[in-house]
C-alpha cells in the first residue's frame, strides 16, 4: 500500500476510533440519560480514542518514510558488484542516482546497465516488502491503541484533561519546531560566516572600502585576489533605504492621519483596501516598473536639467521601494492612531483645541511610540528588499553620496554571490553568509527595538 493510501486508511481508522470511544462512554453510563455521570462530554472520550489511534501510527509512518530510502539504499549498495562498491564516493553516488532514476521511471530498465537493473529490481522488491510491513504495523498500532483506550473508558475517567494535555503537548511541539528552525538557520549562517572570517579578517570585511569578491580558483589561474570591504554595500543599503523611507514615512503617515481622523466612513471603507493593494503587488513587478519607467524618466528629466543620471540609480530604486512600503507604514500608523483612546480627543476638545491642534498635539504624540515602532519595522522591510534593487540600482559597489549613480546593496550581493555553480570553500561564496549574518543582526536589532517601543506604548494606553 502506498503511503498516500495508507494515510487515507489511517484517517478512516481514526474516525472509527472516535465513534467507538464516544459510544463506549455512553454505554458505561447506560446511554444518553446517564451522560451527567460522565466526567467529560462523550466527544472528549471519542477524541481521546482517535488521538491515541492516530498519533503513534503517524509518528511511526513519518519515521519510516524518513529513513526508508537510506536503509534500502544501504542494503542495495552492499549487494552491488565488488568493482562498483570500490568506486570513489562521487562515482558510487552517480551509480546510486542511476538506480533511483530507474526506480522512479525516469530511465527505462532496458536502457540501464545490468548491475543497475539488478539493483533497481532489488530496490523495488525491498520497497514493496517495506510497504507491506509498514501497512501492517500502522494498522496494528492504531487498532491496539483503540482497544486499550476503549478498555480504560469509565464514568470517572478524565478524558477532557487527557485531550487538553495532548493538545498542549502538540502546541509545545509546534513552538519548538519554529524555535529550532530559527536556531538552525542562525547556526548554519553563523558557521559559514566563521569559515569566511577565518580566510578574511573581520575588520577588513566590516571597514574595508573596496568590494571585489572575484578570486582565483586555482593557483595557476590569473585572477584577482579579492577585496572584501563591505562598506560600499552597507552604504548603498543605507542610501536606498533612506530614500525609500523619505517617501514612505510622510505619505504613509499623512494618509493614515487622513483616513483615521478626517475621512468619511464610506470613503475610508473604499480607500483603505485600494491603498493596501500596493502591498500585494509582487516586488518583481515593482522592479519592472522601476527599470522600465522610473529609471528612464529620471534620466530624461536629469538631462533636461543638465544632470548626469545613470539608467540604474539609487534614486530610482529608493523611490519605487518607498511606494512599495507606503501601505506598510500607513497600515501600522492607522492602527496606532485609532488605538488612541477617544477620551484624549474629548479632553482636548473640552479645552478648546481645534481638530488639527488635537491631532498634532494629542493624537500623534500619543501614538508616536507605535508609529516609530512601525517605521522601524518598515526600515527592516526596506533593508531586506532585493528584486527592486537588482533591477533598478544595478550591481556596482560604488561608495558615493550621489543618488543619481548606480549602487548595490547587501541583499543583491548575496544573490549575486550564490547564483550558479559556486565553490563553497572559496571566500567569494562564503562572503554571502557573512553578509547574511550582518543583515540578520541589523534587522533583528531593528525588530527588537520596534517591538520594545510598541510594547511600551500598549502598556501605557491599553
Describe this entry's structure for a reader.
With 462 residues, the protein is mostly helical. The chain folds into three domains: 3-157, no CATH class; 158-199; 227-461, MetI-like (MetI-like fold). The chain has 16 helices and two strands. The chain has helices at residues 3-27, 42-78, 82-85, 89-104, 114-152, 159-199, 202-207, 231-262, 265-277, 283-304, 314-338, 342-350, 355-383, 387-392, 410-418, 427-461; strands at 211-212, 227-228. It has a two-stranded antiparallel ribbon. The longest helix has 41 residues, at 159-199. The chain is flat and about 80 Å long. 32% of the residues are buried.
Quick structural overview:
The chain has 462 residues and is mainly α. It has 3 domains: 3-157, no CATH class; 158-199; 227-461, MetI-like fold (Orthogonal Bundle). It is 75% helix and 1% strand.
Low-confidence stretches: none
Radius of gyration in whole Å, from Cα? 32 Å
How many individual domains? 3
Assembly classification: single chain
CATH topology of the largest domain: MetI-like fold
Helix content: over 70%
* Topology as a string of helices (H) and strands (E): HHHHHHHEEHHHHHHHHH
Main sheet: which strands, in order across?
1-2
Determine and state the CATH class of the largest domain: Mainly Alpha
CATH superfamily of the largest domain: MetI-like
How many β-strands, per DSSP?
2
Q: Helical stretch count? A: 16
CA-CA gap between termini: 57 Å
Q: Helix- and strand-based class?
A: mainly alpha
Strand content: under 5%
Largest sheet, strands/sense/barrel: 2 strands, antiparallel
Overall, the morphology is flat
Overall pLDDT metric:
84
CATH architecture of the largest domain: Orthogonal Bundle
Amino acid at each position: 500500500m502506498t503511503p498516500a493510501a495508507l494515510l487515507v486508511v489511517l484517517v478512516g481508522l481514526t474516525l472509527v476510533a472516535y465513534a467507538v470511544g464516544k459510544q463506549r462512554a455512553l454505554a458505561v453510563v447506560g446511554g444518553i440519560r446517564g451522560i451527567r455521570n460522565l466526567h467529560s462530554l462523550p466527544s472528549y472520550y471519542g477524541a481521546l480514542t482517535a488521538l491515541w489511534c492516530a498519533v503513534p501510527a503517524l509518528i511511526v509512518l513519518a519515521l519510516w518514510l524518513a529513513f526508508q530510502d537510506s536503509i534500502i539504499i544501504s542494503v542495495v549498495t552492499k549487494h552491488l558488484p565488488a568493482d562498483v562498491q570500490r568506486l570513489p564516493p562521487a562515482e558510487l553516488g552517480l551509480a546510486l542516482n542511476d538506480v533511483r532514476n530507474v526506480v522512479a521511471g525516469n530511465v527505462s530498465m532496458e536502457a540501464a546497465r545490468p548491475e543497475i537493473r539488478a539493483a533497481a529490481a532489488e530496490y523495488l522488491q525491498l520497497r514493496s516488502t517495506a510497504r507491506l510491513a509498514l501497512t501492517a504495523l500502522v494498522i496494528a498500532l492504531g487498532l491496539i491503541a483503540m482497544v486499550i483506550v476503549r478498555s480504560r473508558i469509565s464514568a470517572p475517567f478524565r478524558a477532557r484533561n487527557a485531550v487538553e494535555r495532548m493538545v498542549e503537548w502538540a502546541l509545545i511541539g509546534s513552538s519548538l519546531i519554529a524555535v529550532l528552525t530559527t536556531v538552525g538557520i542562525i547556526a548554519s549562517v553563523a558557521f559559514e560566516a566563521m569559515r569566511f572570517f577565518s580566510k578574511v579578517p573581520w575588520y577588513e570585511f566590516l571597514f574595508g572600502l573596496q568590494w571585489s569578491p572575484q578570486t582565483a580558483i586555482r593557483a595557476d589561474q590569473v585572477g584577482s585576489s579579492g577585496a572584501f570591504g563591505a562598506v560600499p554595500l552597507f552604504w548603498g543599503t543605507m542610501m536606498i533605504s533612506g530614500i525609500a523611507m523619505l517617501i514612505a514615512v510622510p505619505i504613509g503617515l499623512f494618509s493614515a492621519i487622513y483616513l483615521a481622523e478626517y475621512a468619511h466612513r464610506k470613503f475610508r471603507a473604499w480607500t483603505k483596501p485600494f491603498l493596501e493593494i500596493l502591498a500585494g503587488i509582487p516586488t518583481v513587478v515593482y522592479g519592472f516598473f522601476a527599470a522600465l519607467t522610473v529609471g528612464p524618466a529620471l534620466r530624461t528629466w536629469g538631462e533636461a536639467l543638465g544632470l548626469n543620471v545613470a539608467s540604474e540609480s539609487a534614486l530610482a530604486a529608493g523611490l519605487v521601494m518607498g511606494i512599495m512600503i507606503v501601505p506598510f507604514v500607513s497600515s501600522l500608523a492607522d492602527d496606532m492612531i485609532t488605538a488612541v483612546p477617544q477620551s484624549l480627543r474629548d479632553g482636548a476638545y473640552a479645552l478648546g483645541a481645534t481638530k488639527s491642534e488635537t491631532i498634532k498635539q494629542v493624537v500623534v504624540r500619543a501614538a508616536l511610540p507605535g508609529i516609530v515602532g512601525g517605521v522601524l519595522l518598515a526600515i527592516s522591510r526596506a533593508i531586506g528588499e532585493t528584486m527592486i534593487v537588482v533591477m533598478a540600482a544595478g550591481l556596482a559597489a560604488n561608495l558615493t553620496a550621489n543618488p543619481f549613480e548606480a549602487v548595490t546593496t547587501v541583499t543583491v550581493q548575496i544573490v549575486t554571490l550564490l547564483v550558479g555553480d559556486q565553490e563553497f570553500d572559496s571566500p567569494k561564496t562564503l562572503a554571502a553568509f557573512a553578509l547574511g549574518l550582518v543583515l540578520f543582526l541589523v534587522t533583528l536589532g531593528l525588530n527588537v527595538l520596534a517591538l520594545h517601543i510598541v510594547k511600551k506604548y500598549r502598556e501605557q494606553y491599553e
